[in-house]
């Protein structure tokens, strides 16, 4: 049974990067423990505050953010961090080589109803000597990521990550407090008949997305020629994990509720890390019109439309958008 550090060493990951990833994992173990305590920890429920996204912060959003921020900005190899819960990027060490972006608690609307939530993280290398409190140093496309992963706090706590050598899954052994390798070389089935989308937004979608979903709902008699099933967990980490395990397609498309926003999900700490994982597992990840990892970020909180999962199904959605 291999531990995370043994797997990273075997992949030839630089020691400094391993130390950065290890600090992310130390914080995530603490988050996992606090979530397991639930009401007993007295940390469920919402705060009085809104984050930069305009979303009400849950107590655990703030606690998780602070755990990750505090340990990472103190790491000598971290130049800075960007977080969904931080207005601006936060400087770490001026000599640090790595930049870490994260969504500390994705799907946090699920916390108070005891459903799955997760932490998503992405690691980039600083390309110049700009300080980590200048967002410019983070603004690199997803292809520049050197590592990406998530921790899914479900019935078991799972770490899923890649350093560009395929996707591995580790299960948290709570008896010893270590993530243990339990699956290697994950491959997403190329085809699927299971889509994940929030149907309540249908009237706000672009015509191309409406047409694809309409055709899915026509089933065997429709142009897609098969009966589809639907899932929606309201936690991207849980959706992506299901897709890694059995295939599927997850979509959070552009919608006109707020035309100024490219979508709901954020490029730097949701779209890009999940795209690296999905592509490393043989899947595809697109805005509907271009690969997500080719999108040039303009700001740390940029939003992006997301269509990811089984590569042949993603190709169909892209084809609908190119008609
Ligand atoms: P909706 C969670 O808030 C999140 O960012 C993703 O994890 C999830 O897929 C999506 O938003 C859920 O959005 O509009 O269905 O609540």
Automatic annotation (TrEMBL):
Where in or outside the cell? Cytoplasm
Q: How does the record describe its quaternary structure?
A: Homotetramer.
Q: Which residues bind Mg(2+) 1?
A: 84, 103, 105
| Name by which UniProt lists this protein | Fructose-1,6-bisphosphatase class 1
List this protein's GO terms for biological process.
Answer: fructose 1,6-bisphosphate metabolic process; fructose 6-phosphate metabolic process; fructose metabolic process; gluconeogenesis; sucrose biosynthetic process
Q: Please provide the record's keywords in A-Z order.
A: Carbohydrate metabolism, Cytoplasm, Hydrolase, Magnesium, Metal-binding
Q: Does the keyword Methyltransferase apply?
A: no
Tell me which residues make up the Fructose-1-6-bisphosphatase class I N-terminal domain.
14-183
- In this protein, which residues make up the domain named Fructose-1-6-bisphosphatase class 1 C-terminal? 188-321
> Main subcellular localization, coarse class?
cytoplasm
